[in-house]
Amino acid sequence: VDPDDQFLGIISDYELLKADLTNTLEGEMVSQFMQRQPQRLAPEQPLIDACKLFREARISRVPVVRDGRL
């Protein structure tokens, strides 16, 4: 979240596991590994939309945002 409370992205253990773990991650920035445009839902969306998204995208979590804010 940026200073204006706008959602910037998300990082998961999956992104870190994809990283080249043969080298040290010291000095690396979160921004290098985060997803900048992850799937997201609005609080007003039907719950079935979340179910479909989880199944189709094979994910288990999704940020809920309104007007770009978590």
Verbal overview:
The chain is mainly α and 70 residues long. It is 24% helix and 0% strand. It has helices spanning 13-18, 47-57. The chain starts with 12 loop residues before the first helix and ends in a 13-residue tail after the last helix. The model has no long low-confidence stretch (mean pLDDT 86).
Distance, first to last CA:
8 Å
**Proportion of residues in helical segments:** 10-25%
Task: Output the number of helix runs.
Answer: 2
Low-confidence stretches: none
String of helices and strands: HH
How large a portion of the residues is in β-strands, by DSSP E? under 5%
As a whole number of angstroms, the C-alpha radius of gyration is 14 Å
For this structure, the quaternary state is single chain
Shape: flat
Structural class: mainly alpha
Major beta sheet summary: none
Overall residue-averaged pLDDT value: 86
Number of strands: 0
Strand-helix topology:
Elements: H1 13-18, H2 47-57
Can you describe this structure in just a few lines?
With 70 residues, the protein is mostly helical. The protein is built from two helices and no strands.
Features:
single chain; 70 residues; mainly alpha; 2 helices
